[in-house]
Each structure stands twice: as structure tokens, then as C-alpha cells.
Amino acid sequence: MEVENMVHSNSMSPASNGIWQKISQNKAPEIMLSKVMLGVILSLLILLTVGGNVLVCLAVCASRRLRCLTNCFIVSLAVTDLLLGLLVLPFSALLQLSSEWPLGPVFCNFYISMDVMLCTASILTLLAISVDRYMAVTMPLRYASLVLPWRVAVALVSVWTVSVAVSFLPIQMGWNTVNGTVQNHGPWASKGKCRFELNRPYVLTDSLLTFYLPLLAMCWTYLKILQIARAQAKLTAVALKDHKATLTLAAVIGAFVVCWLPYFILFTVLGLKEHTDPAIVPEFSIVLWLGYANSALNPVIYGALNRDFRSAYAQLLRCRFSTYSGWKSQQSSPTFTCVILSRCPKTLNRSSSYSSSCLLMVPHPISKGDKLVSMVTILIDCSAMAHTVSQISDLYE
């Protein structure tokens, strides 16, 4: 009977193989088309991530209004997302499209360590931002004396040091694997694969210290900020500016939670099961790329919610200020005119400072007869400088 079954199975195998070959040949164009479309989408995401975060860094450097200590954290976050787009996303796309790793185990572990490091740096930077906003809103009179450049520098160095330590050390030492050996090395390693192995102690420690606890701290600080904002019936101009900045950064943190929370939930579940290769779980790739998409979303949030970032983006994308080199007939559409406020001391009051040449973009042409004056110098009394700048800024808010 067994011989008959063997003969029957052997006699059927060529036909079944032929059927499967025909099915695979028929599906080959569909698979190729889906991979091409996926490759285009991932490439666009990488380009948006790199281009958008380069734009954020240039905007802060080029715009005088964006040069403040809080935006040092924004630049750090943009650098994190930029490095993710350059050093992680291309290789993640390679794995996603081919399911093979041709670059060897050493670079595989470096790539995974970079991925973990940059994600950790993003979370800790957002935590630092929430603390900064909490101090700005709850202690407005002491904020300038507490948040000093050297303290911001120490905070940023601490963020990156902790991120490097919690990412490279466990993975390079094998603390994240079930058998205690370095992943992707040794006789247990799968050739042509890049696996991120998980065990319970590593997953619980990593997820608690670098995601869940910072997330709880951020939620607590923004709830306190919201309570204070509602309690304040009247806001000064400085306080109102702080609240606007806080809302923008709260939106950044909210987007981060929406994008990364599904990944960390699945990461924790798979780690508790001590999964040796999370990448083979179908949902893992979806939640991972949802988290990656957050890096392309941040520059959009800045531009959508912050007028200064919008103006800086527009100037950088035009690659020049909206001025005219000569005379030009006045058009019906509003044109930005460059107005220079001169004879301005370096420090006007405690809350604001301007250099000796303060540049403003006023969205109305200044005419002389039927001609447009492209640039006009206004000499004003220094004592009225702050009030004039505030009036012009509020007028075009």
C-alpha cells in the first residue's frame, strides 16, 4: 500500500509541478508590478524624508526669527530624521523589496543598531522638547535664566549618548538574543538574511525606558500645560507666542505617537514570545514603515502650524528674497517688499533682541508714483523699535 502511494505521488508530482509553474508564471507580472509600485512609494518617502529635513535645518539657519534655543531641539530632531533617511531607509527598502541581505552580518547589525539609535534619539529629543515647553509656560519669568545655551547643549549630548548606548551595546554584545550570541553570526545565522532577534528582558527594558515611560512623561507635561493655558484668561504677547509654539510641538509629539505606537505594541508582543525573526510577521513591515513615515511628516507639521517656518520654506524654495532688482510696474496681486529697519540696538528689552539690521518682509508694495520701490530704508527711533516690529508682525499674523 505504501509502495502504491509512493508511486502515485511520484506519478502526480510532474503534473503538479507543471501546474504550479504555470500559476507562478501567470502571477509573475503582477508581482513585478506590485514591487515596482512599492519601490516608487518607498523611494518617494525617502526623498521626502531627506529633502524635508534638510529644508528644516536650512530654515532654522537662514531665518533670524527661527534662531532660538527651543529650535535647537527641532534641528536635532531633523538631523535624526535626516540620518534615518540616509542611513536606514534605503536598506530597509532593499530588505522590503528583495527579502535578501547581500551586505553581510557585520553591516546588518550596524544597520539595525542605527535604526534603534535614531528611533531612541527621536523619542528622547521629544521628551526634552516637552520639558522645555513645560518650563516656558509654567515658569515664564524664570525661563530665560534656566534654559541657557550650555544646558541645551548638555541635554542634546545626553540624548545622543544614551541613544548610542542603548542601541549599539545590546545588539553588538548579543544581549537581545535568546541564546546570548550576537545575532546574524555563527552556525545559527541564516545566509543572506538580516534578522533582529528579540528576548523578553531586552524588549521589556528597551520599550519601557525608551518609549513607554518617556511617552507617559510627555503626556503628563502637556496635560499640565493645557490646564495652565485654560486657566489663563489674558495672555501677554510673549506668553501667547509660547503657547503657539507649544501647540506646534504638541502636534509633532501626537504624530509621533500615532506613527510609532503600533510598532512598539507589536514589538513588545513579539519580544514576549521571543520571536527570532519579527520581519517574517506580515504586520511588522506595515507598522515599521508607518513609523518611518513620521520622519517625513515633521517638516510638513512645522510648515502647516508655524508661520515663521512657512516663510522660511518659501524663501528657501524660491532661492532668493522676494525683491526686485529694478523698477517694475505694480501688479494687482500682493508682492513681498523687503523693508530694512536700521539704527537698531542689539538689545531692546528683556524679551526680544534684534541685530543692527532687522529684516522684515511686508506683503504690500511700497509705491512712488506709478513705480514700485523694491527696497526702502526706514530710519526710526530705537525706542519705538520693539513696538513697531510687534505691530507689523501682528498685522500679518
**Alpha-carbon distance between the termini?**
88 Å
Which structural class do the helices and strands define?
Answer: mainly alpha
Mean pLDDT: 75
Rg, alpha carbons: 28 Å
* CATH fold assignment of the largest domain: Rhopdopsin 7-helix transmembrane proteins
Largest sheet: 3 strands, mixed
Following the backbone from N to C, one meets helices and strands in this order, namely: HHHHHHHHHHEEEEEH
User: Which CATH top level class of the largest domain fits?
Assistant: Mainly Alpha
Give the oligomer, counting copies of the same chain as homo and different chains as hetero: single chain
Annotated CATH architecture of the largest domain: Up-down Bundle
Segments where pLDDT lies below 50 for 5+ residues? 1-12, 320-397
Give the strand order of the largest sheet, numbering strands 1, 2, ... along the chain. Answer: 2-1-5
Q: What's the shape? A: globular
How many strand segments? 5
GO molecular function, one term: histamine receptor activity
Subcellular location: Cell membrane
Family: Belongs to the G-protein coupled receptor 1 family.
Keywords: Cell membrane, Disulfide bond, G-protein coupled receptor, Glycoprotein, Lipoprotein, Membrane, Palmitate, Receptor, Transducer, Transmembrane, Transmembrane helix
